[in-house]
Amino acid sequence: MKTHVETRVKKIYMGRLPTDQDLLETLNSFCKKHKIFTGSLNLIGAVSRAKMGYYDQKKKRYTACVELDKKLEIASCMGNISLKDGKPFVHAHVAFADLKGNTYAGHLMPGTKVFAAEFVIHEFTGKKLHREKDDVTGLPLWSF
Q1: Mean pLDDT, consecutive 10-residue segments, the chain of 144 residues?
Q2: Chain segment 63-85, per-residue pLDDT in tens
Q3: How far apart are CA 69 and CA 82, in angstroms?
Q4: What are the strands, taking DSSP E only, across 18-59?
Q5: Contact 129, 5 (CB under 8 A)
Q6: What phi and psi, each to the nearest 5 degrees, are found at residue 76?
Q7: Rounded CA gap, 71 and 100, in Å?
Q8: What letter would DSSP give residue 144?
Q9: Domains delineated in the chain
Q10: CA-based nearest residue to 48, from 92, 112, 105
Q11: Which among 16, 26, 60, 91 is placed 20 to 30 Å from 113, CA to CA?
C-alpha cells in the first residue's frame, strides 16, 4: 500500500482573515476561491469565541465539542488542505491560550470566531490528495 507522495511548493499565500468571520469556513472559502487543492497551513492570531472537537477512537466519530465563549490567543494553528467530496477541505488542529495562560487544544471546528488572524498557506504541485473513509479508524484520511 502506498503511504506518501512527493511534492513541491507551487505558491505561498500570506494573508489575514476578516474580524467576526468563522475561522474554518473562511479558510475553506479562501482555498476554494484560489483553487488550492493540496497544501499546508499555519496561522496565528486571536478569537472572540472558540470551538474544538475531539475524535472518539472507540466510537469512530467526533464527540461533543468544547466551546469557549471568551477572548483567546491562537497560540498555534496548523493543518493541511486536500479534497473531500470534491471540494477543498482544511483539516486543522489549534491551541488557544487565555489571559491566565491556560491552554486548550483540539480539532478546529466551525463556530470559532476570528478577532484577528494571519495565515500562511503553502500550495503544493502534483497529485491532488483526496480524503476517503478509512475502515480501520473511521476517519476520512488521505488516499494514495
Answers
A1: 90 98 98 98 98 94 88 98 97 97 96 98 95 94 91
A2: 868 999 999 999 999 999 999 99
A3: 30
A4: 39-53, 55-56
A5: yes
A6: -165, 140
A7: 11
A8: -
A9: 9-143 (3.30.1330.80)
A10: 112
A11: 60
Residue that has been written with the C-alpha cell 482544511 in this structure: 90
Q: b/e string for 10-24 if b means 16 or more Cβ within 10 A?
A: eeeeeeebeeeebbb
Which residue, chain included where needed, has cell 502506498?
2
Q: Which amino acid is at 81?
A: I
All three cell numbers of 96, joined, read 488557544
Tell me the CA distances in angstroms from 28 to 40, 54, 90, 132, one per residue in order.
12, 20, 6, 18
- The pTM of the full predicted model, rounded to 2 decimals, is 0.94
Written as nine digits, the cell of 1 is 500500500
Q: What are phi and psi of 31, to 5 degrees?
A: -65, -40
- What integer pLDDT is reported at residue 64 of this predicted model? 65
